[in-house]
Structure prediction request, 392 residues.
Amino acid sequence: MLLTLTLHASDAAPATDLGYLLHKHPARIFESALPFGTARVFYPENTAERSAAALLLDVDPVALSRRFRGGHPNAPLEPYVNDRPYASGSFLALALRDAFGTALSGRSKDRQAVAELALPFEIELPCLPVRGPADLPERLFGPLGYAVDVTPIALDPRYPEWGERPYVALKLGGTVRLRDLLAHLYVLLPVLDTARKHHFLDEAELEKLLRRGEGWLEAHPERDLIATRYLQLRSLIRQATEHFAAEHFTGQGETDSGDEPAPETAAARTVHAGRLAWVAEQLRASGAQTVLDLGCGEGRLLKMLLPVAQFRELVGLDVSARALEIARRRLKLDERPELEKRVRLLHGSLTYRDARLRGFGAAVLAEVIEHLDVGRLEALAANVFGDARPST
Prediction:
């Protein structure tokens, strides 16, 4: 699989600065052994007007299959005969991070000022899997400012009835910072592919998505589609959705001045934030002084309730340790020790009885039960209504 990244000369920099930006010398071939193959970087062209760096990844599907399947004698043929050595999907994204990690972080030892500039780049991917709607590349890269040229590839020119998709030749053009360009490719190549079987999906994937998507993914019109296809697991998708909703709400409907939140503004901004504002209003009206937020996520509702003096004790429970860490930062618990007696964050699951959840004036289950497996809902109901038994 192949990716070619071309820099054109501009008033800001000659094209030969590409080698400094990528930290790869144009006169040398860079080679790196990866768990799934070998990556090489070389320069087919390097002049003051135009410099092109090629990332060539050679994937060994047989070795890959043996590594992840243990060479089971009854394994199907598909792991040995597939498109992974040729179609530039998620494997190429991993190779890109390995080869261009310094550039991806935005650092350049000799050309830092140039690294901060938007430069005229072209990207070519001669064979890219597009598993989904035919217009998916345009929907993903177009909103980021790229000119997108997609050429479908016939499965076999001798048999046109077999059709063209799911492979295309993709060309992108745009004036963009190199770090942003690499981040876009790192996130969106797996989104186009989705057929990832080479690594375990866990919360580290969510952290990668949020880190590499910072500054552009939040406002992308296909943000939810990107998160769903990148993360794949329902629990991770839920956490990503909560993160984006929280960031959107914090910027639009909350204040840090100590004033109570404005439900009207939040509802106008997002349905999710409107629901939380409605919940906050019901809690105020209930007269409850101790509130339990079950499935508190990253602490959005707790932050809304914090300025309200009525609530003497606020407790959030979530199964995700990472979400609780974000909630702790959002609520600034480490910076405000005076909140220690008033706000607590608990790590736990609603499918198990927990004595810590008993005796509260009110409890909230906001956008939680739809994320549980059906078989666990009965346990949740028994634990919340039968054991914890909040007043409201």
Q: What stands out?
A: The two ends are 58 Å apart (CA to CA). Confidence is low (pLDDT under 50) at residues 248-269.
